[in-house]
Amino acid sequence: MQGRSLRAAFVALVVALFCLAAFVGGAGAAPLQAQLAADVYPGPSGSNPEELTSFGGQLFFTAEDDAHGHELWRAGAGDDGLVADIEPGEKGSEIQDLTVAGSFLYFMAHDSAHGLELWRTDGTSAGTTMVRDIAPGPTSSEPHELVAVGQTLYFSANDGLNGYELWRSDGTTFGTTMVKDVRPGAPGAFPNDLTELAGAVYFRADDGTHGMELWRSEGTAAGTKLVKDVVAGAASSFPQHLAGFAGRLYFSPGDGVHGVELWRSDGTESGTELVKDINPGAADGSPYNMTPAGGTLYMTAFDAVHGSELWRSDGTGAGTTLVKDINPGAATASPGYITAFDGGAFFRAYEGVHGYELWRSDGSEEGTTLVGDLWPGSGSSEPAELTPFDGSLIFSAQSPATGIEMWATDGTTTALVADLLPGHDSSLPDDLTPVGEALYFTADDGTHGKELWRLTMPTAAPPETTTTPTPTPNATGPAPTRTALIRILSGKLTLDRNGQVKLRLSCDAGSAGACKGTATLRTVHRLAEKKNGAKRVLTLSKASFSIAAGRVGTVNLRLSQPSVALLREDPTARQVMAIVAAAGATATQRALTLRPKPPRPAHRGHHAATGR
Predict the structure, then answer these.
(1) What is the pTM of this model?
(2) Spans of all domains in the chain
(3) To which H or E segment does residue 261 belong?
(4) pLDDT greater than 80 at residue 278
(5) CB half-sphere exposure, 287, CA atoms < 13 A
């Protein structure tokens, strides 16, 4: 009976894709074409491109070849290639946080002489330079949380004297200065969640007196002030999920009375207030995923009656309401990847029947509907990386016939764009980034490893053999039954001060029972062993897990002291591969950056939860 159901679902999917071919590549329409954009590291290993960023009409990204380690590359203007070899040799410069501000692309990079410092490029090798050695010598200032405010770059850095504080840069050495020593002395204020709004930068920080609270800066010491001490005294409200909407900043602090709820601010103390107690009383509503779309602020929030569902707000208490109880009752829909498109919000959600699939909303209950059931029945297609491009919403999703591949929708019709790794295996498209008339992304086609690809509208209609592929059944029958389906959700990893790394995984709602297996963290690069100097890929940690079907879980991977020391000393070791194998499931892996967490002060008092 189960076999007949699977065959019927498979046939239905194939027929649907055939009928929908006109949307992506049918009569009268030029199909989107996917092609390899750069094979930086020829062969099956792949160069593991990351940090895809549009700048000056080109794509800039980090990648590794056999000679350079992870360095800065460019593509898209006919002069594709390595931009600069900042740390010569195989080690690589550990480039992170590519951010455009004014005429420059800024980033954090490491070289042996200066440690991790702020760099910039104008897109040329000669124009790629360190901005300032903020912590002089090989000590690292670790600039992070880079954000542009007009032509100016703001970030958090540690100069070795004042701890982590707010800095700014105009791209010159002398124009790169600390804005304000918010917390005098070595501990630092640890500014985080830097967010631009109306020419100012908002952030959370701890001045040592008020706890971790909301701050605002106009770029000067005098213009950098505490917005409001939401929890009076040294306790912290820990504001998070900062987002601008209609000229106001929206965020989620915990005031010690209402739990973690929705607040807004106009930058003044009197204009900083609770919008709505979504989950009444001291319990948390934990609003996050705040996304403006069609004149409305959408978010994911929790209440005890409806679980975690889609909410909307116009900035008032009365105008902050549940959009729809997608998964009825106290069960949870967990809307994610909320993205503005076609005048409304598109997102991933689970309603208890179809698994995690693509939904859309115009802000009304009746206008909140399922877009498509790409994995028919209770299985989940788990759409991710939702990205508007050329009038369509492009995203990654999985189906029984194709694995995880690239899809497109206009809001009504949904179709497969390209099956780069044909059959049930997955090319895992990721980091979708529009640049002009092309959409760049990373994928593994099984031949080149994880490399850079692009999606374009061809100037002439391609031959029929290269139009958007439609999945066909194997000669041996339909896709095999999967008793479990596990997916890696983490985009970046952090090594905490206790030597632990948390890896987030999801177990498909259609899995037969819990997903049980082993998660392994290993280095991407071959590194020298201390005992004999031989180079090999090193296993950093392993841990078993068990996650209930339809749930998200966290695997705690504990690293040994030698592994922790290696990660702190050698930036090359921070390029890691997470490999997850579960009983009855296809093993999956993902290349990630593992960043050692800078020390942070202990906070007293209320520390808000990060959400559900």
Answers:
(1) 0.75
(2) 94-232, 486-596
(3) none
(4) yes
(5) 31
